[in-house]
Amino acid sequence: MDHAAESQRTDLMTVTCHVLNEQTKHPEARGDFSILLYHIVLGCKFVCTAVNKAGLAKLIGLAGDTNVQGEEQKKLDVLSNQVFVKALISSGRTCILVSEEDEVATFVEPSKRGRYCVVFDPLDGSSNIDCGVSVGTIFGIYMVKDKDTPTLEDVLQPGKNLLAAGYCMYGSSCTLVLSTGNGVNGFTLDPSLGEFILTHPDIKVPKAGKIYSVNEGNAKNWDEPTAKYVEKCKFSKDGSFPKTLRYVGSMVADVHRTLLYGGIFLYPADKKSPNGKLRVLYEIFPMSFLVEQAGGQAFTGKQRALDLVPKNLHDRSPIFLGSYDDIEEIKGLYAAAEEKEP
Ligand code: FDP
C-alpha cells in the first residue's frame, strides 16, 4: 500500500455512506436496514469510548466502582449490554434481541417493533479488559418471519440465514468489520471525525496461512484430530516451516488477525467441554459468516459451521475457522478419524 498516497486521500467513505450505497443496489429497500446498522454503529462508538476509559476506572470511578456522586458504577459488559439493547430498540427496526448477557431473549414491544432480529455479544473477551487487551462487540442480523407474531424460531435459525454480521474491535484502533452478504469491509474509527472510515475494502482471507491460534493449555483433553493438527503445525514432516502460534484469548482479536493475515483459529471440543466454549448464535455464526464471505471456511469438526441449527439461545460448539486450505486440512483429519470409528 502506498501510505503517502493514502494519507492524501480525500474520497473518504464512511460506514453510513457505504451502507447507503449498498442499499441503492436493492431498489425495493426502504432504508430500514441502514437505520438499524446506524444504531449498531452508534452502540459501538459508545462502547469504544467506555473501553478507552477503562484503564482510568480506579481513578475516576468507572466499572464496578463508586463514582464521586456515590453512585454504584456498572461493569463494562453490563453497561455495554444496556447501551446496545437501548440503541437497538430505539432504532424501531428490531423485533427480537439475543444477548450473551441475557438469559432470555428480549421481545421488543409491538409499538417499537421492526423486521430484524439481532444476536450479539456486547463485550466479548471481557476477561481481558483489566490488562488493556483488545475486546470487541460481535453481532449478527436475521429477518423475522412475521413481525406480528415473533417466536424463538426466528432466532434459532442456521447461520447461513444471516442477512449480515460484523464485529467491532476495541484495540489499538477501533475497527468495525462488516458483511451484508456481499464481501467483507473494514472501517477504522477516526476519533476526530467520530466516523468509521473505509480502510480495509473487500477483505480476503489468504488461501493458506502460517499462523495457528488456540489455547494450548487445553491440549491434554483434545480429541485425536485436533491434537494431530496442532502437532503438525509445530513438527511438520513434509519439510514445510512450522507455523507461528498467536493466541490473544479474545475472539475478536484472534479472528481479526486471522482474517487479515490468514491461518487458523481453533476452539475445539475437549474432554471437559465436549461442545467447546464458544457460543453458536453470537460468536460462531457471525464470525463464520465473515470468514466465508472473505473466502475462508468455518467447520465444527462435523459440519460447515453455518449449517448448525441451534436448539437453545446459548448453545456452544467447537469451531475451526480461517484460511481455506488450513480448514481443508483439519476437515481431512476429522474425516479420517470418522472412517476409523467402528
Ligand atoms: P472471555 O472468556 O474473555 O470472554 O467466549 C469468550 C472468550 O473470552 C473469547 O473471546 C475467547 O476467544 C475465549 O473466551 C478464550 O477462552 P480461553 O480463556 O479458554 O482460551
How many helix segments? Answer: 9
Class of secondary structure makeup: alpha+beta
What's the count of strands? 13
Order of helices and strands: HHHHHEEEEEEEEEHEHEHEEH
Rg, alpha carbons = 20 Å
* Termini Cα gap: 53 Å
Percent helix, as a range, is 25-40%
Extract low-pLDDT stretches. Answer: 66-71
Shape: globular
What ligands does this structure carry?
2,6-di-O-phosphono-beta-D-fructofuranose
Percent strand: 15-25%
Strand order of the largest sheet: 2-1-3-4-5-6-7-8
User: What would the average pLDDT be, to the nearest integer?
Assistant: 91
Largest sheet, in brief, is: 8 strands, mixed
Domain Fructose-1-6-bisphosphatase class 1 C-terminal: 205-333
Family: Belongs to the FBPase class 1 family.
InterPro entries: FBPase_C_dom, FBPase_class-1, FBPase_N, FBPtase, Fructose_bisphosphatase_AS
EC number: 3.1.3.11
Overview of the molecule:
By secondary structure, this protein is an alpha+beta fold. It is built from nine helices and 13 strands. The strands form two sheets. It has an eight-stranded mixed β-sheet, with helices on both faces. Strand 5 and strand 6 (174-179) form a beta hairpin. 2,6-di-O-phosphono-beta-D-fructofuranose binds next to helix 7. GO terms for molecular function: fructose 1,6-bisphosphate 1-phosphatase activity; metal ion binding. It is found in: Cytoplasm. One of its GO terms (biological process) is gluconeogenesis. Residues 205-333 form the Fructose-1-6-bisphosphatase class 1 C-terminal domain.
